[in-house]
Amino acid sequence: MIERILSRNFRKTLRAIFRDISTYQKREENERLKLDEARIMRDLSESIIPHPTNQPLEEDYLVAAIDGSGSPDFVVINDIRIHLFTSATVVFHTGTRDGRLFHEINPVELSEALGTGQPRIDFHWHTGVKEDTLTKVAETIAHFYPVKFEDLILPFFRDWLGQDDLNSFENLGETEYGPYVNELSDLRSLLSRAPALTNAAIHDELRKVFEYDAARRLIESKFKPRYLLLDGSLSIFTHLMRKYPTMPSGFILRHLLELARKKGVIVCAISKNHTVPAAHQIARAVRKKSGGSKWFCFLPSKREPGGELHIYENRTYIPPILAVSYLFSFSDENRPSRVDFDRVWWEKHVLDTDSETMKEKAKLVFRDLEFMSRDARWYGYPVPLGVAHERCVLRRDDLRMAREIARGLIRNVGLDSGKLDPLREDYNM
Amino acid sequence: MAVDKDQLGEAFGIVSVGNQTVLEIMGSNRDICVGELFMIYSRRDDHERVFFFRVLELQNYIRQVDDLPRVAGTMLVEGDAYLAGIERNMLLAVGGRLLGYAERDTPTGGWVFRSPRRLPDHLAPVFRPLPGTSDEIVAQLLGPQVEGDIYIGDFQVGEAALNVPVKIPARFLPMHLGIFGSTGAGKSNLMMVLIKSLIDNNMEVLARHGDGQRVSAFCIDPHDEFARGIDRYGIQSIVEAMDRATRSQVIGEFYYLTTHKQATPREIKRYAKEIRILWSEIQPRDLYSIMDFTPQMAAFIDTVYSQKREEWIATILEMDEENAGGVPAGTLRAVQRRLRFVERSPIFQKTGVSVMPLIFEAMETGRVLVVNTSLMSDMEQFLLTTIVTRTLSDLRRAVKSSGTLADFDRQAQLRLPTGFFRRIVQKARAFYGIGSGDDAPVRDPRDLPVLLITVEEAPSILNPELMKGQSVFKDISRQGRKFNIGLLVVSQQVSVLDNVILSQMNTEINLRLGNEREIQACIENASVNISGFDDEFRVMGRGEGIVTASYRELPLPVRVPLFDHIFERDRHRYRQSSGRPTRKHVI
Q1: Which of A226, B15, B62, B568 would disulfide-bridge A61, Cβ 3.0–4.6 Å?
Q2: In sequence order, which ranges of A50-121 are alpha helices (DSSP H)?
Q3: Is the ipTM of this complex over 0.85?
C-alpha cells in the first residue's frame, strides 16, 4: 500500500478533494459568514473577564463531571458480542476560600453517595438475532437507567409541548401525540431505529444511557453541584413525522435535564468537536474584536429573534432540539469548543429580550466555566471533565488485562468459545 | 517474632520495578535527598526480610500527567493556570541500589545481614527510618555490619544520622585503613575522632583487665591541630580530663612529638618529646622508600652500608671523589645531594639522644602518639614515618621469626642498628617474652597491640614508582597483618596510589572527593561494590562518608560527629579509672 500512498496519483486525487472543499468553503461558508458577521460581532459574541485567580468567589460551589468510555467488541464469540462500558463521576469544590483551589471530593465518599464504585463498569451482550438484539438492548437500558417507563417518557413531551402539567399517558393522549401513545409501551418500543441498529450504534446508545445514569445518580445524591458537565452534546434525534426521539436515550436525556432543573443543577454538555461551520473564522474575528483569548458566541436557533445563523442553515443538529449552543474558547492555543445547555433552563435563566442583558447573564456562566478551565494539564478545558476522562478511559493495557481475565473466566465456566484473539491473528494479519 | 513495622519509620512508598541490584520506588512527595536510606519490608514466601535501599536518584512524578514539560510550560505562560487537586498525585520516583537485606538466622534467631541476592516482594512497603524511632531496630538488623571497637561516626540515613554507632573491629586494622577525602572534607576532624576512639578503646581494654585488643597509633599531624584541636577541644583536652591513674595507664609520660618543643604551648609541653633520630637509626631502605635512587646509587649505598653499617651516612657525606673507591663522581654527588637534607635537618642528628626508644616503648604499650610535623619538610616527615614503620616492623618480624627470647635477640640484631637495639633490648624482652630468661618463649605478634601508622600525603610515598623498589611500605602492606601492624593511609587522591596498597587495604572511609577521576578511582577500589554511588559522592557534605570494608556486605553511610561534641559528651568518662559501664551512645 505504501507505494500507492507515495504515488503521484494519490497526491493528485487528495489535492483535488481539498480544492473542492476549499471552493465549497469559499462559496458556501465564507459567503454565508459574511451575512452573519455583523450580527455575530454585535449581538452574539462577547469576551470574558476572567475571575482573578487569587480572589475568593463570593460563594464556593461544587462542579461535577461525567465521562464514559467503552469497547463494542470487548469479547466476540461467533455472533455474540460483549460490550464493555465505563463511566467516571468526579466532583470538585472550587475551594477559593480554603486555599485548596478545585480540590476533589473524596472518591470513596462519592462512591458511597452514588451507590456505585468509581469508576463504574458494566456489560451488555446480544446475539445477531434481530429480536434478541432489540430485547437485550432494551433490557440493558432498563438495567442501566432504572426509572419507571412513564416517568422516563413524559419529560420529553412536557418540555417539547411546554406543558408542565402533562403527568400521564392519558394527558399525552390528549395532545398531538395521541395517535402514538399506544405505540409507546415499553423501552423496546422506543427502539424505532431498529434497521439502523448496527453494533456501533447500539454501543453509542448504551454508552450514552450509562453516562446519563451516572448523571442521574449524582443529581439525586446528597451532593448539590452548581454545574454538571457532560462530555458531548445534548443532541436528540427525532422522527421526521412523529417528532419524538428515535431512541430511548433521547427520552432519558430529557428526564435527566428535568431532574437537574428541579435540583438547581446547570447541565453543560461540552463538545471539543463542535461541528460548527466557519468556527475558526468566527474565533479569529471575535478575538480580534475583543483583543482577548477568552470569549463565547451564542449560536441562535430559528426560534430566536433574527433566526438562526446562515452558516449552519439546514444543519438540524445546531442547536440540538430543546437545547441552545454556544461556541467558546478560553485560550489562544485551543480551537473553539461548543457547549449545549438545556433550553428550558436557558429560557428561564439566560434568555432576555434585551441582547445586552442576555449576554451579561451568559457571561456569568462562562466566567464560571472559564474559571474551572485553567488547570495546566488541560488549559481551556474544564478540569473536572479532564479528570473524569482520565478516570474512565480504557487504554490498550486496560483492555488487554480485561480480556485476559475474560479468557480465564471463559475457561473456568467451560464456555465453548474457541479462540478469543482477534480473528486476523489466526492468519498472522 | 515479626518486625514491628512502626519501628521501621515513616511509611514512604511502594517498590515498583527493579532487580536484585537496582530498584525503583514510587514514594510520597516528601523532602528526600540523595543518599537517604530506606528499609523495605518483605514477606515473600513467608520469609521475613528487611531490605536496605540507598537513594541514588530522584525524579518528580505526577500521576496521570504524561507530558510534564508541557504542563510546566502552560503554568509559566498562562499566568492564571493552576493544577487542581494534584497534591495526591504528586509523587517521587526514587531510584537507587539495593544494599542487602537482614533476615533471621535459623539457629540463633538473631538477625544476619546478607548481600543483595534476593529481591523484595511485589509492591513491598518502603519505610523511611526516623531518628528516635528506628535507631534500635536498625542497630539490631545491621548487627555486625556496624559493630566493632573503634567508633568513627553514626549511621547516616540521608541528611540525618541515626543513633547507631558505626565502628571498626580492631582486629581488622592490621589489614590497613584508608581515609580518602579532598581538602575540607573533614579528614582532620575524622582523625581526631579516630584518635579519641583509639584512646577510648584502650581505656576499655584496660578496664576489662586486658581483655580486648589494644591499638597503638603513630598519628602524623601535618597542621599541628590534633593536640590543641581545630575548634575548642583537642586530644590535650582528653589528656587533661583524665585522672592521674588513667592518664598514666593510657597516655603515659608523653603523647605529643614535635620538632620544636620550646615552641609548644605550656600545657601540651608537659606531655611532649622532641623528635630526634640518630643517623645510625636510619637504614638505606628507609631512604629507598621515600625517594628515587638509580641502581648505581643504590649499589654504592649498599656497599658503604655493608662496610660501615651505622656510620654509612656520615661516611658518604664525608667522602670526596678521590676516596670514593672508584665510584663515579656523578653517582657520589647525586647520593650526597640526596642525603644533604638529613645533614641539614634538626631532627636527624649524627649524635645525641634519640626518641626512637621512647616511640618503641609507647607503641608496644598500646599508646597513641600525635606527631606534629607542621614544621618538617615533606622529606623529613616521610623519612620519620618510614624509620618508625620499618623499626617496629623489624622488631615484630624478629618476634615472629623467634621461638625464644634468645632467638629474638639474634633476629633483632640482624635487622636493627646495634646502638638502637642495645637501648631497647631490655624493654623489648619484657614486652615480647613470656617470662624473662633466654629460653622464655615469645608472644605471638597477634597478641601484642595493633600498631597503626599514619601515612599522611600518602601519594608521595605510596606511589607506584617508589613501591616498585625496596619500599618498607610494600612489605607492610602485604605482610602487616602477620605482625599486627596496619597502615592508616590518608590521602586526597586515590587514583595515584599504588595498586599493591589499594588491593591490600580492607577498610576505606571515603569522604567527599575532589573530582570525577577520584570518585571513579574510589568506587573501583572500594572493598565492597559501591558502583552507582557517583552522584552521592558529588553531593556529600563535610564529615559525611561511606565506609567500605571487605569483611562487611554493606557500604555504610556515616556521619562523623564533630570532635568537640563527642568530647563534651564523654569528658566525664575520663575521670573514672576503671570498671566503667559503657554509656549508651547518644548523638
Answers
A1: A226
A2: 107-114
A3: no
